[in-house]
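Working notes for the structural subgroup meeting. M.R. asked for a predicted model of this chain before we commit to crystallization trials. I am recording the input and output together here so anyone reviewing the notebook later can reproduce the run.

Input as submitted:
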Amino acid sequence: MNSFAGVDGCKSGWIVIRLDEKNNLDWKLCETIQEVIDFTFTTSLTLIDIPIGLKDDDPEERMCDKAARKLLGYPRMFSVFHIPNRPVVYASSYEESCSLSQQITGKKISVQTWGIVPKIKEVDSVFAENRHVQNSIRETHPEVCFFGLSGRPMKYSKKTQIGINERLYVLTKVYPLSKKIFSTLKRNIPHTSALNDDILDALAAALSAQSAWQKAVIIGNKEMDSHHLRMEIVYGLAYENI
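Returned structure, recorded in token form:
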């Protein structure tokens, strides 16, 4: 039986939601990306919200990020942040990362981007040594997932209650138990481990992976990095069935 998973970074590491073709669902909080890989080992497809494949000294952005912004339009385009180059990711301090980014791209990186650099580095170091993992665990973006599930960009920010409700409506159309699952995970996962939008994003990625198994869209134009990792964003189309 095929199974699918969605992964999103959270305060305690990674939240993983997994479901099968009969819509049986389970979940896990993982501390490391290796734990994620082990938990999703049997899935047919796992979609994760983290960059896979990084530019080195090329000042141009990854094509998939530019294409994703174009797809989402204003204002959701701003949720697709600028991915730092590999030397920037492996910098030992924020100051060094800004200096390296300035040299390569002409721009410093934001404090917010530096905040997720540890997760980008963790994934890059593991995937660079185990490229085959990308055959089953592929990069996605939550707002692109919601686009694929609904056929349109989300109107409201996921940080607002109306934005949460908007996304829950979309998820419930695709997977009727979404509200129940969301409420259950909210009760069982403390805010110190994962936020509400982390749960929503992981569930959207899982449902997008299930849809992508039948009808996948790949953004990225077959662009590869120096470690032969594909720089692409993958999502599924489900809105035609809604």
